[in-house]
Design goal:
Elements lengths: L6 E4 L6 H12 L3 E3 H9 L3 H8 L1 H18 L3 E3 L8 H7 L4 E5 L2 H8 L12 H19 L2 E4 L5 H12 L5
Parallel strand pairs: 1-3, 1-4, 2-3, 4-5
């Protein structure tokens, strides 16, 4: 694929994809896009409501389409939802792209997002569910990533700089 995103950020909820993505876009002078935000805008409802009202399969279908659309039409910084990499077709579309996996451990996840009720996949026993999600997803994040950048104990600015360094990109 030619002319796709300059950087694609993947990782678990709370890893900083949106915050770091916005910083990268600003530093590189390119647009920022978030597929979760695309879905919310198109549906007029929060993702948590889509999960509850329509179910996860419905949301994952919306997500797959939103990611494919963004990958084909966006040339800036793109952040994907935490579960986007679950889809085989999405992983195939990411092959060869500058994908960065923003990793973090559970203690960092608790500190950042509190594993709260707004996260539908973590509604019951959030620590255990987060570990199970990561056990199921970690290898998929790694599979699609050109580089892995740990976010634990780093500021968003430090993570953004680590992404720039890892991909050998220069800010404007």
């Amino acid at each position: 694929m030619t002319g796709g995103p300059l950087v694609v950020l993947v990782g678990p909820m709370g890893s900083g994809k949106s915050t770091v993505g916005e910083l990268l876009a600003e530093r590189l002078g390119v647009p920022y896009r978030d597929t979760d935000a695309d879905i919310v805008a198109a549906q007029g409802r929060p993702i948590a409501d889509l999960f509850v009202d329509e179910g996860e399969p419905y949301f994952r279908d919306l997500e797959r389409k939103a990611v494919a659309d963004a990958l084909s039409g966006h040339t800036g910084i793109l952040a994907l939802g935490g579960g986007a990499i679950l889809d085989d077709g999405t992983r195939a579309l990411l092959a060869g792209l500058p994908v960065v996996y923003l990793s973090m451990d559970i203690d960092e996840a608790v500190r950042r997002v509190g594993l709260g009720a707004a996260r539908p996949l973590l509604a019951v026993n959030p620590r255990r569910q987060w570990r199970e999600l990561m056990d199921a997803r970690r290898h998929l994040y790694t599979e699609v990533a050109r580089v892995v950048v740990a976010t634990d104990d780093r500021t968003p600015e430090e993570v953004a700089q680590a992404v720039l360094d890892a991909l050998e990109l220069k800010d404007v």
